[in-house]
Amino acid sequence: MFASLTPEQWTTPSLCAGWTVREVAAHLLAPLETRFSWFRVLRTVVRYRGDLDRYVDEQTREWAERPTDELVAGLRRLAGRQLNVPFVGPFGPMADTCIHLRDAARPLGLDVNPPPSSWRPALDFLTTTNGARAFLPASRLTGLRLIATDQDWAWGEGGEIRGPSEALTLAVTGRAVALPDLRGPGVETLGNRITS
């Protein structure tokens, strides 16, 4: 997808507040090229005083200064690399990749979307304690039942929210743009929680 974009598309605002499509691509590449070490993690936590969101934003903006061809080549070269990130394991990066692909594709009107079988582990992960802790406020899904309409997947108890796996994932991770694709009595509750 990124290889086919025009210069104007690279500068399009993504669904990630403050990031263009270029920053999303850079964010996807950075962890693939960065070698993990506990020393680096501890140094980063200390340097950023525990504000890992600020670290990710600064790292992403730095990587986004790379030429477009370099970003695309890196994503292609490392597409098969599996990451097992501390605290979130391998499903954190997988969920992150699915979500950020749509963060870039949706504003461009591109129908580049992982299949439901790829969204399933992302949804499973996001509804676990580790996934919720990493990607959304713990109370966001309280009293809600999520039901995918494009595969056999459901989770939770309470006000139902039905829709495609992609829209469910984007909405629970705070992307209000996906709310119109969802149906059910729990949609308003979720909308209030992500927009307040």
From TrEMBL:
<dbReference type="InterPro" id="IPR024344">
    <property type="entry name" value="MDMPI_metal-binding"/>
</dbReference>
<dbReference type="GO" id="GO:0016853">
    <property type="term" value="F:isomerase activity"/>
</dbReference>
<dbReference type="InterPro" id="IPR017517">
    <property type="entry name" value="Maleyloyr_isom"/>
</dbReference>
<dbReference type="GO" id="GO:0046872">
    <property type="term" value="F:metal ion binding"/>
</dbReference>
<keyword id="KW-0670">Pyruvate</keyword>
<keyword id="KW-0413">Isomerase</keyword>
<dbReference type="InterPro" id="IPR034660">
    <property type="entry name" value="DinB/YfiT-like"/>
</dbReference>
<protein>
    <submittedName>
        <fullName>Maleylpyruvate isomerase family mycothiol-dependent enzyme</fullName>
    </submittedName>
</protein>
<dbReference type="Pfam" id="PF11716">
    <property type="entry name" value="MDMPI_N"/>
</dbReference>
<feature type="domain" description="Mycothiol-dependent maleylpyruvate isomerase metal-binding">
    <location>
        <begin position="3"/>
        <end position="81"/>
    </location>
</feature>
